[in-house]
Amino acid sequence: MTRLAVLLCVAVVVLAACSGSDPTIDEYAPILQERAVAYADEVETLAEQNAADLNSAVNRLQNDLTGDALLEAAVAETAARSSMLFAGIGDAIDRYVRELDAMAVPGAVEDAHVSYVAALDASLSGVAPLLEALAAASTFDQIDQAIASSGFSDAQSRVEAACAALQAVVESAGATVDLRCVVVR
């Protein structure tokens, strides 16, 4: 008799696990927040490290070069470091989007979740053209223009709005989350 009871309990657990039902908002929200915070921390660390590395490189160049040689080397260093930064951000976005795509999402927040992923995808699609523009830049103005006019930069307000909308929908469903919706500009 106990063997039958154990088998029935196991069957109930297996059926529940395989039912494919949506997670509750209380199951979804902490996973979403954990992934959002990890992504935001990674991007913040990339930006901080890039700024420190660029500052060190420019200081080194100032000690070694002057005049046009300094300007040319500083532009090249800035373009290269900017490319590394945005390539790293692109990698981070790609991983984050894949994590979000793999999540089971409660029906109540599905539209907002999908909109957020779409905004991140739009941002990601702007990275490759930005990297190409940075590689072709030969002045600080061209670097600034490449970044300011990129699809990546254009998508940032959409990412922030979609993130804030997802956070609001999650909170209206009864969970508290902080998705760190302010993005790198």
Write a concise synopsis of the structure shown.
This protein is mostly helical. Helix content is 81%, strand content 0%.
DSSP summary, beta strand count:
0
- Count of DSSP-assigned helices: 7
Tertiary shape: elongated
Oligomer category:
single chain
Order of helices and strands: HHHHHHH
Give a quick account of the main beta sheet: strands, pairing sense, barrel closure: none
DSSP helix fraction: over 70%
Strand fraction band? Answer: under 5%
Overall pLDDT metric: 90
User: Rg from C-alpha positions?
Assistant: 23 Å
Distance from N terminus to C terminus (CA atoms, Å) equals 65 Å
Structural class: mainly alpha
Question: pLDDT under 50 segments (min length 5)?
Answer: 1-19
Explain the overall architecture.
Mean pLDDT is 90; it is low at 1-19. Helix content is 81%, strand content 0%. With 185 residues, the chain is mostly helical. It starts with a helix and ends in a 13-residue tail after the last helix.
Features:
185 residues; single chain; mainly alpha; 7 helices; 0% strand
Secondary-structure blueprint of this entry?
Blueprint: H1 2-18, H2 25-64, H3 67-102, H4 110-125, H5 127-136, H6 140-148, H7 151-172
